[in-house]
Amino acid sequence: MGDGRRPRSFYALSAVFALFVAFLWGPMVAIVALSFQGPEGGLVFPMRGLSLHWFEVLLSNRGSVDITGAFLRSFRLALVVMVLTVVISVMAGLAFRRVFPGSLALLYVAIASLIVPSIVVSLGIGLEFRLLDGAVKALGGEWAQGNFVTLLGTYTSGLGAHLTWTLPFGLLIMFAVFNRFDPAYEEAARDLGAGKWQTFRHVTLPIIAPFLIGVAVFGFTLSWDELARSSQVMGSQNTLPMQLAALTTTVTTPEIYALATLTTGASLCLVAVLLVVAWALRRRQGE
């Protein structure tokens, strides 16, 4: 408009966006606020007192949640998933730069788990490992009958279940990155006498490094809060989301709000650190 005033549609869209942000963050703000209640606090407003009581209960393991064990299990698993997602995604991205027989079918198979319900994936992996347990017991003789329990565990079936969720995202990101990658940089390095490994280390890797941060964020955060794919495959040890789900099915206290506040804060801190690293890498490339 010539008079400098914004059209009415601008305010309408702004109002819709504001409502969306309120709907997205409102519940989290309420949970964070309720987590700072006093010992007599309940699950709804109004708040009863203001203290760090429920954080103390949570961190001292005096409540109904094994916060320390579950947190460490989820954190270690998420780190392993993050590293494997980055490494495998980069290797797959490099491989798919060249067309080979069956590449399209392999791509569809690799990302198929995105459209399969997570609980179905978890049930399938759990069933697969139970069949492996039966095979081990059948072939292991007396030793297996007396000592073997199960192959189900955090870094066996649990790791595989989480990778079925994180890898497709990493693959799609790296495919998009390498689809826009200019091979002239690598050709120039080879013309100067660099080998394949030197070209990758000194040319390709620095260029794609900021995108690897994105893959790492996806890998860690998707594994960190995954529940459905973990439900049937973790064996006897629960992850943090599983402990959280178990708590909501029993007696719920503001302790669960304190847990949600801590896990959300940890996730946001990690994302912030990785974004700073990505910004530093881009600034270094610009210089």
- Low-confidence parts: none
- Helix count, DSSP H or I runs of 4 or more residues: 10
- Biggest sheet: strands, sense, closure? none
**Tertiary shape:** globular
Keywords:
287 residues; mainly alpha; MetI-like fold; 0% strand
Describe this structure in words.
By secondary structure, the chain is an all-alpha fold. The chain has a domain at 67-250: MetI-like (MetI-like fold). 71% of the residues lie in helices and 0% in strands. The chain is built from ten helices and no strands. It is globular, with a radius of gyration of 24 Å.
Provide a concise account of the structure shown.
The chain is an all-alpha fold and 287 residues long. It has helices at 8-34, 53-59, 67-95, 103-111, 118-147, 157-179, 184-191, 196-224, 240-248, 255-286. It has a domain at 67-250: MetI-like fold (Orthogonal Bundle), CATH 1.10.3720.
SSE arrangement:
Layout: H1 8-34, H2 53-59, H3 67-95, H4 103-111, H5 118-147, H6 157-179, H7 184-191, H8 196-224, H9 240-248, H10 255-286
Helix pairs in contact: 1-10, 2-10, 3-6, 3-8, 5-6, 6-8, 7-8, 8-10
